[in-house]
Write a structure and sequence with these properties.
mainly alpha; Glycerol uptake facilitator protein; two-stranded antiparallel sheet
């Protein structure tokens, strides 16, 4: 059995390797896919990236791959709070590693892409219209839909004589519906902020971008709290409302 923390690292690594990779593929200069219709390609690839990450690691860790999901499940009393710090750290490191390998894959195209906003967009999200209140609401409600949906997709805890022997989460069989959920969130709600809906997905790659040897880099730290706190609040609300209803 793979250690659950390692599984979360691996799953989030694949999520960012493939997710950040598709953004690089359509945005950077002189790639094969540059100039293609980006939004359908991007939202589809992020959904498929979730599928890959969940399918690989679901049986070992529940495949949260997202601190907001971990928090939401804990609030709903479906996941142990004692595991939360380790899961979030593993997700953050996995996101950083995945985005770094994606950078290495496209490094020649990064070198010839001069627009720094384009380069940053391959690592982290940003608003179409900068309005912090509305941007925050967008990330919050998008993550609420994600976590609320996950709570109904995933199976219950497995208990033996009142003792939880398997933590609540997503198994490989649940990979496809979760991928579809992320896909439709991107298509329906992602146009305002790029739908981070995952603090590790945004913060980890933003840190990687900050460390790149580029002269004019701008990680846009004044905005960075939105895709962190918005998803955390959305996940928490989803857990609370699920608990109230169920």
């Amino acid at each position: 059995m793979i250690d659950p923390y390692l599984a979360e690292f691996i799953g989030t690594f694949f999520l960012l390797l493939l997710g950040a990779g598709v953004v690089a593929n359509v945005n950077l200069k002189n790639t094969i896919a540059s100039g293609q219709t980006p939004w359908v390609l991007i939202t589809s690839a992020w959904g498929f990236a979730v599928f890959v990450g969940v399918f690989i690691t679901g049986q070992f860790s529940g495949a949260h791959l997202n601190p907001a999901v971990t928090i939401g499940l804990s609030v709903a009393e479906k996941f142990s709070w004692s595991l939360v710090p380790g899961y979030i750290l593993a997700q953050l490191l996995g996101a950083m590693a995945g985005s770094w390998v994606s950078y290495l894959l496209y490094i020649d195209h990064y070198r010839i892409t001069e627009d720094e906003d384009t380069v940053r967009s391959t690592f982290c999200t940003g608003p179409a219209i900068r309005n912090y209140k509305n941007n925050f609401f967008s990330e919050m409600i998008g993550t609420f839909v994600l976590v609320f949906g996950v709570l109904f997709i995933a199976g219950p805890n497995i208990e033996v004589e009142g003792v939880v022997v398997k933590n609540f989460g997503l198994g490989a069989i649940d990979a496809l519906p979760v991928a579809i959920l992320v896909w439709v969130i991107g298509m329906a709600m992602g146009g305002t902020t790029g739908y981070a809906i995952n603090p590790a997905r945004d913060f980890g790659p933003r840190l990687v971008y900050q460390m790149l040897p580029r002269k004019n880099k701008n990680a846009d730290w004044p905005y960075a709290w939105i895709p962190i706190l918005g998803p955390f609040l959305g996940g928490t609300l989803a857990g609370l409302i699920y608990t109230f209803l169920i």
